[in-house]
Design a protein that fits this description.
Blueprint: H1 7-15, E1 20-24, E2 30-31, E3 46-50, E4 54-63, E5 74-81, E6 86-92, E7 111-119, E8 129-136
Length: 137
């Protein structure tokens, strides 16, 4: 059982300006980040494709106690990509109101682009990490 797109190759592609995913040859669904089987039908018959990076914010939450390497508070969002799958991201350039810690609800439905940030390794991590980001347009 071999992965056609490894996490290492996914990370390297991001660092080289490409956002890769998998397209199922059976049902046509897209899967990202890379997995062994299609997220929709569990087929292993998939091919590597480059995704657009374009998406729409569907929901978000504010995380006040974050993993090491992430700012606090950190706004985590679920973004629906143009190609269909949803990915978990960190929202960039959005700050809660310092008095109330509220965020504007008009963030939902806003469009933007997927990016990434490197998260350094620390004492209890399994090595370097990478987080998908979302910048509103």
């Amino acid at each position: 059982m071999e992965y056609i797109l490894t996490l290492k190759a996914f990370r390297e592609a991001l660092r080289n300006g490409k956002f890769l995913g998998l397209k199922c040859e059976e049902c046509g669904a897209y899967t990202v980040p890379p997995k062994k089987v299609c997220s929709n039908c569990t087929s292993e018959n998939m091919k590597i494709v480059e995704l657009s990076r374009n998406g729409e914010l569907r929901t978000f939450t504010v995380v006040y106690v974050t993993a090491e390497g992430f700012p606090s508070p950190c706004i985590v969002g679920e973004v629906e990509l143009e190609e269909g799958p949803w990915v978990t991201t960190t929202l960039l350039n959005v700050e809660p109101d310092p008095k109330t810690m509220d965020l504007p609800m008009d963030l939902i439905g806003r469009k933007g682009k997927i990016g990434y940030q490197d998260i350094p390794a620390f004492e209890f991590s399994a090595g370097e990490r990478l987080a998908l980001t979302f910048s509103l347009t």
